[in-house]
Design goal:
By secondary structure, the chain is mainly beta. Helix content is 9%, strand content 38%. The chain has a 5-stranded mixed sheet.
C-alpha cells in the first residue's frame, strides 16, 4: 500500500522544509512511497520547479516521475534526497545502510562551576 505526502514550506504540508528556503512553494510537490524502494514525485505546479539529478545534470520534473529513494532532488533552492524527505515522516523505516554505520552522537555535558573567560578571568556560572 502506497503512502502519499505533500512537501513544502507551508504548515499545510505533511513534510515541511526549512523556512529559510523561500524558493520552495508552500505546497511544492507530492511524494508517493510506492513500497518498492522507489517514490513517485509529482511537481504541484510550483513556481521555481522541482528538479532531479541525472548524472551531473539537473532535469526538471514536468508532471510525475518515478525515482529511487537515494535520488537527489532540488525544490526551488533546497537540495535533498527522497530518502531524507521520507525520513521526516518515519525515521526508522527510511534509514539507509549508511545511517546504521554512523554511531549516535554522545550528549554534550554542560560544564558547571568556575571557568576562565576569553580574557583569562575566572567567572562563575
Amino acid at each position: 500500500m502506497s503512502k502519499i505526502y505533500t512537501v513544502g514550506r507551508g504548515s499545510a504540508a505533511d513534510i515541511t522544509t526549512p523556512k529559510e528556503h523561500n524558493a520552495v512553494g508552500k505546497l511544492h510537490l507530492q511524494l508517493e512511497d510506492t513500497g518498492s524502494g522507489q517514490a513517485r514525485v509529482t511537481d504541484l505546479q510550483s513556481t521555481n520547479g522541482t528538479f532531479v539529478r541525472v548524472g551531473a545534470q539537473w532535469e526538471e520534473i514536468k508532471g510525475t516521475r518515478l525515482v529511487s529513494f537515494d535520488t537527489e532532488l532540488m525544490l526551488g533552492d533546497y537540495n535533498i534526497t527522497v530518502r531524507r524527505l521520507l525520513s521526516e515522516m518515519s525515521p526508522k523505516k527510511y534509514r539507509s545502510s549508511k545511517d546504521e554505520d554512523t554511531p549516535p552522537t554522545p550528549p554534550v555535558k554542560k560544564r558547571t562551576g568556575p571557568r576562565r573567560n576569553a580574557f583569562g578571568e575566572i567567572v562563575h556560572e
